[in-house]
Records
---
Amino acid sequence: MPLGPADLAAIWLTLKLATLTTLLLLLLGTPIAWWLAHTRSRLKAPVSALVALPLVLPPTVIGFYLLVGMGPNGPIGQLTQSLGLGLLPFSFAGLVVGSMIYSLPFVVQPLHNAFVAMGTRPLEVAATLRAGPWDRFFTVALPLARPGLFSAGVLGFAHTVGEFGVVLMIGGNIPEKTRVVSVQIYDRVEALEYAQAHWLAGGMLAFSFLILLALYSSRRLRPAWGN
Amino acid sequence: MRRRFLTALFALIAIGRLSGAAADEVQVAVAANFAGPLQAMAEDFRNTTGHRLVASFGATGQFYAQIRHGAPFEVFLAADAATPARLEEEGEALPGSRFTYAIGTLALWSARPGYVDAGGEVLKGQGFRHLAIANPKTAPYGQAAIQVLERLGLREALAGRLVEGQSITQAHQFVASGNAELGFVALSQIQQDGRLGSGSAWIVPAGLHEPIRQDALILAKGRDNPAAQAFLDYLKGERAGRLIESFGYGR
C-alpha cells in the first residue's frame, strides 16, 4: 500500500473531526429538532430555512463567509478575540465550527422527522403517569427517537468525512491540524501522485458506501420512527 | 459588414498572417497568478486580431490532469516550466510551440500598510501568527517561498506558523482577509500599473529562489486553430510584453 504517514495522519484527523462534530451536533441538534417539532412560533419557518441552508449553499459560500466572519475584522473573529480564544481559521477548532454548520441539517432533519412521527401521544400518556417534562423527554421521547438519532449520527458523521470546500477555504492545509482526507486527495491529484490518490479516494468511496449501506439496512430491519 | 471585414484583414496583416479565417475562438487554460494580466490583454487581443479568447483560471497541476483527460483547452499558460515540458513529451501539445512568456516575481505582502519593511526583516520577528504560502508541493510560487525561507535560515523557526493555500490565489485571500498577517504572493496579484494596490510588501530579490519560469504552449486540441497560434504570437509581442512587465513579471 503506497499510503504514507501524511495520508494516515489525514485519515486520523478526519475521523477525529467527524466524531467530535457529530457528538456536538447531536447535543445541539436535538433541542433544535425538538423545538421545531413542537413549536407553534412564527419563527419556526425562518429557523427551519436557516437550518436547511447548508443543503443548498455551495461550500465556497459557507467557507468564504466563515473566513471573513472568523477573521480579525469579522464579527465572530472579534468575539473570539475578546474572549481570549484567538482566531478560528487555520485551527482544528475552526474546522469543528465550520463542519457543525455544514452538517447541521443532516443531523437536525432525521431528528425532527423522528419527533414529528412520534406525535404527542406517548408524551401525554407519560404525563398522565405523572412524568415531569424532563423525565418524559429522557425516558420516553429519546428512546422512541433512537432510530432517528442513529440516522442523524450516521449522516452527520458521513457528511463531515466528505467535507471539502469549507475546509479548503478556512483550513490552510496544516498537517495534523487541518489537512483532512479530502484535501489530501486533492493535493495528491494536483501533485500527479495518482496511485496514492486512488488509494485514498477508493477508500473514501468504499467507506461511504458501507456507512450508507449500514444505515439503509438498519431501516429495513426496524421500520423507524425516523422515517 | 465591409468595415468589419477590413478591420479583420488589417488585424491579420498586423500580426503577419494572411491565412486562416478571421474571428475564431481560442480556449485558454491560465495559471491563477496570471489572471490579472490576461484579463487586461483579452480585449486588446480581440481588437488587434479579431479572435476571441475564452480563459479558465486554475492551478497548473489541476489543468494538467484535466488536459490529460480530454479537456477542451487549446492553449496553456502554466505557472511553471515543468508541466508544459511534460505535456509536450507526452504528445499532448504542438511540438516546438513552447516558450517562456513570463518570469514570476515573489513578494512578501501584508494587508496592513507599513507592516512589511523594505528588507523583509519582519519575517524574523515574533509579531505574526500566520505566514501564508501557496502549496509548495503543487504551486511554483509556494516552492519559491520555501526556498526563500531556507536561504534566510528561517524554515525551521517558521514551520509552525505556515498556512498553505491550494493556489497562490488562496494564499493571497488568506492575507487579504487578515487571517494571515503575512504571506508570500505573486507580485502580479498586488501590483497594477507598476504600483502596489494596498498594504505593504517586500519584493523578494530574485537571487533568493530559483527563477519562476512560466511557459506557454499550444495543446493538441489547438493544433489547427489559427486563433491559438495568433494568441501565442500576440503573447510574444511587444504590447503584451509591456503589459506583462507592468504587472511585475520579468520577461
---
Amino acid sequence: MIEKIKQIEQEAQTEIATVQTLDHLELFRVKYIARKGLVPTLFDSLKTLESSIRPEMGKHLNDLRNKVQKLFDDKKEALEKNLHSEKESIDLTLPGRKRWIGTKHPITQTLDEIKRIFFKMGFEVAEGPEIEDDYHNFEALNFPPDHPARDMQDTFFVSDKILLRTHTSPVQIRVMEKQKPPVRVIMPGRVYRNEAISSRSYCLFHQVEGLYVDTRVTFSELKGTLVAFAKQFYGSNIKFRFRPSFFPFTEPSAEMDITCFLCKGSGCRVCKQTGWLEILGCGMVHPNVLKNVNYDPDKYSGYAFGMGIERIAMLMYGIDDIRILYQNDLRFLKQF
Amino acid sequence: MRISLNWLKQYVEINQTPEELAHSLTMLGLEVESIERLGDKYNNFFVGKVVNVQKHPKADKLTVCQVDVGEKTLQIVCGAPNIAENQIVAVGLEGAIVPKNQHDPEGKPFQLSKVSLRGTESNGMICSEYELDLGEDKDGILILKINAPIGTPLSKYLDLDDIIFEIGVTPNRPDALSHIGIAREVATIQNKTISLPVTKVIEDTAKISSKVSIKIEDPDNCPRYSARLLTDLKIKSSPEWLKQRLKSIDIRSVNNIVDITNYVMMECGHPLHAFDYDKLEQGMIVIKCAEENQPFITLDHKERKLRKDTLMICDSHKPIAIAGVMGGENSEITKDTKTILLESAYFLPRSIRKTSKHFSLVSDASQRFERGADPNGTIWAINRAAQLIQEIAGGKVLNGIIDVYPKIVEGEKVILRLSKLIEIVGITIPKEMVIEILSKLSIKVIDISRRENDDTIIVQTPTFRPDLQLEIDIIEEVARIYGYDNIPVHQASLIKFSENAPIKNQISEMKAHFIGAGMSEIITNSMQTIQTALLSSPHPVQISNPISRDMESLRTSLLPNMLEVIRENIFRGTTLVRLFEFGNIYFNNPYIAGKYLKEYQEVAMLTIGLSGSANRVNWDEKSRFYDIFDIKGEIESFFEKISLDNIKFIPYSTTNALSESDLRIEINSEYIGTIGMIRKDVLKRFGIEQDVVFADIDVDKIIKLADIKKKFMSLSKFPSVIRDIALVVHRTVQMDRIEEVIKQYGSELLRKVELFDRYTGEQIGKDNVSYAFSLEFISSDHTLTQNEVDKVFNNITKKLEQQLKAVIRQ
C-alpha cells in the first residue's frame, strides 16, 4: 500500500510538470482527484486493509490527497495567471467608450453666474410677461406719452397699446404692484428692440434687472451693491466709475463702467479706445414710479439696475458677433 | 452731437487736454463717445508747387510733373486738364489716405502708394477738391492761393487744427445740444464763467410793425413767437470760416442765410427759421393747426398730408411751414430772395414730437423743440442771427422785434429738503456746498429757511433746463456736480429679504439634467414667419411693425426653430445632434385669459430634438439611428428624475402639421406634452435628410405637478423575491395592457414590473408576441414566504390567461 501511495505521488509530480493547458489539467484532475480517480480509488481500498494499520494508512492517504490537490491548485492558479496576462496584452491605446457630453448655452452660463452672485446678496427672482402693455413698459416707468425718451428704445408693437417689452423694467412695476416693501429681486428675461440686425445688435436680447426698495435705501448703497457684484463677477482688482446718465424711471441715474479687461485701460478696439467698458445702467427709483405703485416716496426709496446678458457674455468670451449666439452651431456651443 | 473744441473756446477758457476735457464731460453725464482730430484726415498731404510739366511719353491725357513739396521735388503723373507750371497745389504723398475716390461710385477712400503709370513712376497725387472732401469739383485739381507756403502740411494750411467731440446727449438735456450749452457745463466744473458774444443789431428806421403782423391762434402749442424783418439782402455762399465751422460738425453749407440760422442754432441751441418775405401773403404770420388731410410740400420736396393736430406756420392764405419741424417749399430762401422774415419761436415739445413722429421727419430743429427749447431764449437768438446776417449778407434790419408772448414762462419753483438729499445720496453734503453748486448751475436760490427743524431751500430753475421740475431733479443735479465718484461705496451689513417666499429654481435643475444626459442647450429667436406660426396654432401673436416678413409673428412652437438649428448643424457637418431648448411660445387667443394680459398667453415650453446616430461612434459597437423609444426613454428618465409618476403615453393618430406616430403624454389625465417623429414631408421642406425625434413639453404644468414636498419613506428591512414571467399574446394586445393587468393583480406586495425581453418569430406563431417580465415582491413587515408569493403570482398568471388570452410559458 505504502509503495502504491509513493508511486502515485511520484507519477502525479512528474505528470503535473508536463501540464501546459487547462484542458490537460482537467485530464489530470480526472485521473487523480475525480470521484473515480486514482486517489479516491485508493481510499476505497482502505476498507480492505486490516483495522490495525488502517489509521496509519489513512493518514498517508490523506497526505497524498492533499499533496495532489495542491499540485492541481497551484498549477491551476499558474495557468489562469498566464491566461490573464495574455488578456492584458490587448491594445490599451484603443479609445474608451465615451458618453454624450451636453453643453449649457453661453447666455445661460452668464445669467447663472450673475444670478448666483445676487442670490448670495439676498435677491430673489421675479418674472413678468414678454408681451406687455404700454402702461407697464413705459407709462408707469415715467415715460410720458410723446416723450423723446421713448426713442431710446425702438419698439415692436402688437397693437396700439400692446407691445413686446423693450426692457425688463416693467417687471419692477408688476412686482411692486403685488407686494409691499422690502422688495429685493432680480428679474431676468428676454427683451425686444426694433433695430436693424448687425454684429452689434439683434432684434432681441436678455437682460437682468435688479430692484431694492425699502426705507433708507441710498445711492451710496447702490454703489456698494454693484461694486460688490462687479468684483465678484469680473475680479477683485477691477477699477470702476459711475457716471451720470438718464433713464426716466430712475433719478439720479448712472452708468457703471469698469476698466477694460482686454487692454487693462490703455484703450483698444473693444472699449473704443476709452479704456472703459460700460457694464450696466442704474439709479435711484424715481418718485413718480413709486407713486405709480402706491408706495409713499417720502417713506420709501430704492435703487434699480439693469444689464444686458449678451453684451456681458460677448465681453467675457471675446465673441465679436451677437448673431452667433442665436445660430446654435454645435461647434460654437461645444466651446463653452 | 458734434462739438468743436475751437468753437467751444469762444465761450469758455479751456486749459485741459482734449482727453482730460472728454473725461470731465463724460463724468458730467455728457458722454464723449469719440474724439476726432480733423487734421488727421490730411496726414501726408502737403502744399506743393508744380515746377515742370511734360507730356507723358505713352499717354495723351497724362502729364508728368515735377512737384516741389518743400524738402524734395517729386515726380508725379497727373491726369487733370487744368495742370500748369507754377501752380500751388495739394499733394498727397505715399501712405496718405485720399478721403474720396473719384472713380468709385460711393467715393470710398483709398491709400496712396508708389505706382508706375504706363511705365512712368509716380510718387504721389495732386488732388481735386472732391478727392480732398473739400467740395464737389471733380473736373480738375484744386489750385491753392499763390502765396501758400510750399511744404506746409495741408491740415495747417486749411486751418484744420480743430478737435471734434462726439457727445451722446441724453434726451433729458436739450440745453446740451449746443456749444454754449456745453460751455456752460465746462464752466460749472472748472469754476469759470462763460462769455457770450455781445449781440448788437443796427436797426433801420423803418419799423417791422408796418410790414408784418403775427397772430398766435394756438397759444397752447405755440407759447411764443418772435420775428424780425431783414431787407436788401444778397443771397450767396457763406464765407470760408462759416462753411468750415459748419462742416466741422457735419452740417452742409446751403447759402449765407440758411447757414447763419444753422450756426446760431448750433451756437445757442435755439432753432431759427427764415422765410422769403415776398412769398408771404399780406406779410402775415398765423400760427394754428392744419386742416385734416391738407397737402403740404416741405423743403425736402415731399408732399405730406397734414393732420388736424399738426401745428403750422401760415400766412394769410396758406401754410408755409410745419412749425418747429421743417419749412415749406413755397417760402424757401432762394438766390433771388431779397427780404426775409426771421422766426425765433418756442413750441410745445409734445406737439412737435407728435408731428415729427407722424411724418417720420426728424430735423435738427425738431430734435431741439421736442426735447424743450428755452422759451426765454428767442430774443438773444434772433438778435445774434440778425447781427451775423447784417455782417455777412448786408442789408437792413427793420426796427423792432414782433414778439408775441402772451404768458411768460418762468422757471419751476422747487422745494429742496436737505434731509431728502441725504436720504437719497447717502451722505451729508454741506448746505453751503449745495448752494454753491446750485448757483453754478444757474439754479436760483429764492429762499433758505432759517427756522429750526426746517432744512428746506426754495429754488427756481432756469428755463433752459426743462428737465428740472421736481425735488429729485435738483437732488440729481447736486449729486452730479458733487461727483458720483465722491459718493462713498457703502454696503449694508444687514440684508433685508423680500417679504415673499423665494421661488425654486426648477428650470435650472431641469437644464442640468439634460446637460447631464449629453444634450446641448440652444436659444433661438422668438419671431418667425406667420406661415410657420400658423403650423402650430390658429392664434399667433402678430407684430404690426416687424423688421421683415421673416419675423412678423411670435413663435407658437419651439419645433420649427429646432428643425432649423438641426438643418444648419447638419449642413455644417455636425450630423449627430442632441438638443434642447427652454423657451416661451405665445398666443393671442381672445377666449383664454393670459396670466398677465387678457387675450395674450405665454407658455413656457421644453423641446428636445434628437437626430443622427443614437450612440456615439465606437470601435466595437454598431451604430443605429434614433427612434421613438430613444426620446420616450429620455422623457421617462427625466420624469423619474423629477419624481413624477402616473405618467401615461397615449398613442394617437395625428393630424399634426409637423409630426407623425405621436404619443400624448398625460399625467393624472392632464395633457402635458407630446413626443413623436417629424413627418417626412416636413423634414424635406426643412431640407433635413435624416429622421428627427422630438419631445415638446409644457414646463409650467410639470413644475406644478412636480412641486410636491418630498417625504422620507422607510426602507424595508426584509429581502425581496424576484419572479420572472414569460407569456405569449396575440400581437394586437399592447404591452401596457399586460403591465396594467400585472399591476392590478399584483397586490400590495408587488413593487416593480420590468419588461426584459420581447420576441417575435415563427416558433410562437406569426401573429403572436412573446414578452418576459421580471416581477419584484416585497413586504415592509416580514420576510415573504414562497407560499405567499405563489398565491399572488398564480393569480396574476390566471388573470393574464383569462383577460388577455395569454399563454404562460414555463
